[in-house]
Design brief:
Elements lengths: L6 H27 L3 H33 L5 H27 L3 H38 L1
Length: about 140
């Protein structure tokens, strides 16, 4: 399977990931935290835009590392990928959530841990599914 991905493909990968995440997280966050859907929707959108940019950059670096080191996209590699991605995102999201929700950094960090507990399996499953679908699409175009 080709590891070379166009900017367009990277964009649609990130966009699909974020649109589905917003559709799940905004209503769930509003319900669980007691904020309005609009308030949580705006926070979710801000986080999504940060995450989309991070997703594109991180995945480009991950692909480059894979080409350089020659490892396969095993379940273990995807698990490491998911954990490293989420650590980077925590560093950006905690201050934003603290400011937007008018809570302390510790409360925002605890909230973000809850978000990470959702996103670790979500990221893993989305990317495994994406890899599988992409392999089928690439195989069809190569025949």
């Amino acid at each position: 399977m080709s590891l070379q991905k166009s900017a367009k493909e990277r964009f649609f990968h990130a966009l699909g990931f974020e649109v589905l995440a917003i559709a799940i997280c905004a209503p769930l966050g509003a319900w669980l935290l007691g904020y309005s859907l609009a308030h949580m929707g705006v926070l979710t959108l801000m986080i999504s835009l940060i995450a989309m940019a991070w997703n594109m950059v991180f995945n480009m670096v991950f692909d480059r590392a894979q080409r350089r080191m020659g490892f396969a996209r095993t379940l273990g590699a995807r698990a490491v990928h998911s954990v490293l991605f989420e650590i980077g995102l925590i560093l950006a999201v905690v201050p934003l959530a603290a400011w937007w929700l008018d809570i302390g950094l510790w409360e925002a960090f605890v909230l973000d841990i809850g978000i990470v507990l959702f996103f670790l399996p979500y990221t893993f499953l989305f990317n495994c599914t994406f890899d599988h679908v992409r392999a089928r699409v690439v195989a069809r175009h190569l025949i």
